[in-house]
Design brief:
By secondary structure, this protein is an alpha+beta fold. It has helices at about 20-25, 30-35, 40-55, 60-65, 100-105, 120-150, 150-160, 165-195, 200-210, 240-245, and strands at about 1-5, 80-90, 110-120, 215, 225, 255. The structure holds zinc ion. Zinc ion binds near residues 71, 121 and 194. Zinc ion binds near residues 69, 72 and 78.
């Protein structure tokens, strides 16, 4: 898949520079230097440098560049079919870009961790998330046919008119409780097979060590799944651009295959 950036403003002081590549904007009009004027270029370059220095060694690109699942613990690892995304924030820089968030959460830089994820790992996440909802539905669906048997329902109604409803509600309640227990047990089993707690992943651990923190859900952030990864913005550039010391190493038009 082509990842194309359109850098038309050849007059920009950052044009085709390493900073430009790391800023990784889709087009010049999206760039903070375009919005804030050429005099902001130097400060922007400092931001980018600071951002890079705060990332763990090797950056975050290997997570989304991997063609195999980065969450599987068992071999062989599944083929990448989507991305499990969680957002991290850093308290630096203080004087900042995302002013509203900064005030609320003390967030300076933000970066998504985009874990290449296989079909199986994604299904585990979804099953785990929906189990407390699925279990009551299944149990009520199993109970209803029994309640529909005329002889039974008449006997129940004869005892008390609300009894069939109570049984249905009880079935839902028991289903929910069973779902919760199963959810906990499944979570433990999944953890053996994959990095089910994304914060335990070595990449997350490296981020935490560098002072980053998950933005949503401090204990066990739930990933958002996407078939396509976030391609633009700081931290989302392919690692070839991070390695590139100057424009000569960056492919023509910033295009590269994924
Ligand atoms: Zn997997």
């Amino acid at each position: 898949m082509e990842h194309t950036t359109v850098k038309t403003n050849t007059a920009c002081v950052l044009h085709n520079s390493r900073t430009c590549a790391l800023l990784n904007q889709r087009m010049c009009e999206d760039c903070p230097v375009h919005r804030n004027g050429p005099e902001s270029a130097e400060q922007t370059a400092q931001f980018v440098e600071q951002f890079e220095s705060l990332l763990p060694e090797g950056g975050v690109a290997p997570l989304f560049e991997s063609k195999t699942c980065t969450l599987c613990k068992t071999e062989p690892k599944g083929k990448r079919s989507s991305y499990a995304i969680i957002d991290f924030g850093h308290s630096e820089p203080k004087q900042l870009v995302h002013r509203r968030l900064l005030q609320k959460q003390g967030v300076g830089f933000m970066v998504p961790l985009q874990f290449a994820c296989c079909h199986k790992c994604r299904r585990r996440f979804l099953l785990h998330a929906y189990l407390p909802l699925l279990a009551p539905v299944v149990l009520v669906a199993l109970t209803l046919p029994a309640l529909m048997i005329p002889h039974w329902i008449e006997s129940l109604r004869a005892a008390a008119s609300w009894l069939p409803l109570l049984i249905a509600v009880l079935a839902a309640g028991i289903g929910y409780a069973v779902g919760k227990i199963l959810q906990r047990e499944l979570g433990k089993r999944f953890e053996q097979e994959m990095y089910f707690d994304l914060l335990q992943h070595p990449a997350s651990q490296a981020m935490l060590e560098k002072g980053w923190f998950p933005l949503f859900g401090e204990k066990k952030p739930r990933p958002v799944f996407s078939r396509k990864r976030i391609r633009y913005g700081l931290g989302n550039a392919p690692s070839s651009r991070k390695i590139a010391e100057n424009s000569e190493n960056i492919p023509e038009n910033g295009a590269e295959s994924d």
